[in-house]
Specification:
Length: 146
């Protein structure tokens, strides 16, 4: 058995709201019909917001639009996350060697100028770490042969 009951038809709601506006109280209508006092009271206040009689809270149209915008934001965040992961995989550097490195412009064992290294960001720092152990020329020769 479902924990919640099916929604009341829109026509039934409209009739209850009209009865309240004619002069019947929500408590009387709750005793006579199935909806609770709180439900009838909420319907009347929402109808007042929708018709512009009160400015407190959001109208039904605004709530629907807000709900739709939240769905779109959730979807866009998911798509952005997927694209970020795909981009990270695409531009991932090889684990062992950097083949685009130009080393002919310096003597073995010395480091080239920063402007001689393509994509001089983290690759430049990697070159600095490797250069201490062995010459750059030896390192690139081994990568090309592998």
């Amino acid at each position: 058995m479902p924990s919640t009951r099916a929604r009341y038809p829109q026509e039934f709601r409209r009739q209850i709201i009209d009865l309240v506006r004619v002069g019947r109280t929500p408590r009387e209508l709750a005793q006579e019909f199935e909806p609770t006092y709180e439900t009838v009271h909420a319907w009347v206040h929402q109808a007042d917001r929708d018709e512009g009689r009160t400015a407190s809270g959001l109208s039904t149209k605004q709530r629907d639009e807000l709900r739709q915008l939240h769905r779109e934001i959730r979807q866009l965040r998911l798509e952005r996350e997927i694209l970020a992961k795909a981009t990270a995989l695409r531009y991932r550097r090889p684990a062992r060697c950097h083949q685009g490195l130009r080393v002919g412009e310096c003597t073995p064992g010395s480091l080239p100028a920063r402007h001689n290294v393509p994509s001089a960001g983290s690759l430049y720092q990697w070159v600095l770490r490797v250069a201490g152990a062995r010459s750059i020329e030896t390192r690139t020769r081994r990568c090309r042969s592998a």
